[in-house]
């Protein structure tokens, strides 16, 4: 077993800092790589060494494998952690890292490749009796055969192109009379977009919840799960709020899904950190969706309910250590919620709102954690994902965690650009969320931009009513306070 002495983090921002902090606690030196846009970034200042790897566009810096390998050689690093995004799920990069003699903090290239192919992944996990969404296991173009399969599955069904994505060649069919027309359209669109008219047919889950399980495996054949995360509140199919554990899983269902997640990992001969994603329908039937072969953005909620440092665990496993615990040793402690703070305007279809953080004050208090890569005065670059921070709140129950998160949102002060904090507050106070009765269509069902404006107007009306009861000198004091950016609701955009 080789002990890692110097670790290069092939990433940027909050995840780079997150990894470096754990490495430093383990006595491991760290190397940052950065683009010209990130020259003053916090992860660059925190690392023991830093190497510029190119211009701001990621295609010329963070995605160039050869530059990262060269930086590792130049600094004498003996391991590389990819973080998430960029090259983290690229089997060619993992193979190159290994070929060049470095330790890759992640799974094998073979596992990454297998789970990167939806068809190959489903074929592999089917051998372990992992539930799959009912449908065809191979592409189909024969209309009569396809119609017969659709009837057997039961409507509604989903027709989707086998050769591509992005919603092209995809049709939802609610009833049999519509099947032929929608099938023809899907095949025609698939041919036009991808040059291949073959399609898959799957059962369409009308009220899907997105529930994923964190798994860990070592290089000695041991695999465990670290319980689930509920990730159903999304916009544009990207998560905004995550929590652990899920509010709808019974202990029996959690055990069943956890065992299925472990079997997915075993099907891929998987080691290190991974996430098995499931779709769960309104009757709590669950189906394998895919596996992410890396650390997830939302991993902190799992850390909060288990007390484990997942990055340290990743490093130990990469060094060849065995998992230091068994499944029966793991317990859920309380409840954790993560809100992602994006530089986006929720009142304008969540469009990016890149700019400078004129005011940036993090919330504080027991059970509140903020993972970020920014400080006041820094600009949020438009070259990368617009996430500013992740705020994680932990408490003994879900209700208390919700209350704490709302308090923390109100305390989180950001001016100079719009953020998703007001949207997250809206979600956390909505009856559908507090009751646990929600799915991935939360935004579609419940959110309208004017509701945020109404919420802000109500706050201002309450303030006006309060001012009307105060003596003149007190009103002047409050007005002076209001002129400074102390609230997420009152933004200074001048």
Explain the overall architecture.
The chain is an alpha+beta fold. The model is unreliable at 481-494 (pLDDT under 50). Helix content is 36%, strand content 22%. The chain starts with 5 loop residues before the first strand and ends in a 12-residue tail after the last helix. A hairpin with a 5-residue loop joins strand 12 (272-280) and strand 13. The chain folds into three domains: 6-105, Rossmann fold (3-Layer(aba) Sandwich); 143-203, Dna Ligase, domain 1; 209-446, ATP-grasp fold, B domain (D-amino Acid Aminotransferase, Chain A, domain 1), CATH 3.30.470. It has helices at 13-25, 42-46, 65-75, 91-99, 109-116, 118-126, 143-153, 179-194, 251-267, 299-306, 310-318, 398-411, 421-429, 431-435, 442-446, 449-467, 472-482; strands at residues 6-9, 29-34, 49-52, 79-81, 103-104, 157-161, 170-173, 199-203, 209-217, 223-235, 238-244, 272-280, 286-292, 335-342, 344-345, 351-352, 359-361, 368-372, 387-395, 413-415.
**What is the arithmetic mean of pLDDT?**
91
| Poorly predicted sequence stretches spanning 5 or more consecutive residues | 481-494
CATH structural class of the largest domain: Alpha Beta
Total count of helical runs of at least 4 residues: 17
CATH topology of the largest domain: D-amino Acid Aminotransferase, Chain A, domain 1
Strand content: 15-25%
Give the second-level CATH assignment, the architecture of the largest domain: 2-Layer Sandwich
Characterize the main sheet. Answer: 8 strands, antiparallel
Tell me the strand order in the biggest sheet.
13-12-9-10-11-14-19-18
Q: What number of domains?
A: 3
Structural class: alpha+beta
Q: For the terminal residues, how far apart are their CA atoms?
A: 57 Å
Q: Strand tally, please?
A: 20
Rg over CA atoms, rounded to whole Å, is: 24 Å
